[in-house]
Write a structure and sequence with these properties.
mainly alpha, 0% strand
């Protein structure tokens, strides 16, 4: 079983706080970093798809995986060449995902056999996700910066929690 060490938790907390402060200080650069991470992800997926293509034994899967690899390369190149439109598209996808997930979560509350507490959590979670998605979709340009700022705040809170956890681990030992 994995047990985090005191030092690891505190260092992770400090790193998270530094990243959070950087995201809050430079949200535009944070958005660019997220776009570049997406590009790296797309390029990585293209290698995986190509590997699947060369491992397949019949023409259909080979062609399909090669087409997916080319689409991934194109997405990565687009992200690197045009980061602003890529950030906008990523924000729009996030907004659509949040609205869709929220609607499904809301309706999941009315499944047969759900308790009142579970039902309330599903309803509240679904409504919050829908509202978040609609806010992001209403102003996607501001949404990208807002996401960067929220990431910064999350990193600060997570970092503080990791440091407190590391101190608690130290005191417990």
């Amino acid at each position: 079983m994995y047990r985090p060490s005191t030092t690891t938790s505190i260092l992770l907390g400090i790193l998270s706080i530094i990243v959070g402060l950087m995201a809050l200080a430079w949200p535009g650069i944070t958005v660019l970093a997220i776009v570049l991470l997406f590009a790296i992800y797309a390029f990585s997926r293209s290698f995986v798809q190509a590997a699947h293509a060369f491992r397949s034994r019949s023409v259909g899967p080979v062609l399909g995986h090669l087409v997916l690899a080319l689409i991934d390369v194109a997405a990565g190149l687009f992200a690197v060449a045009w980061p602003a439109p890529t950030a906008l598209v990523l924000v729009l996808v996030l907004g659509i995902w949040a609205v869709t997930a929220g609607v499904f979560e809301f309706f999941a509350a009315f499944r047969r056999g759900e308790g009142a507490g579970t039902r309330a959590i599903f309803i509240i979670g679904g409504l919050v996700a829908v509202m978040f998605g609609l806010v992001i979709l209403a102003r996607p340009g501001i949404g990208a910066l807002t996401l960067a700022l929220l990431f910064g705040l999350f990193s600060l809170v997570y970092g503080a929690w990791q440091i407190a956890f590391g101190i608690e681990l130290h005191n417990a030992n």
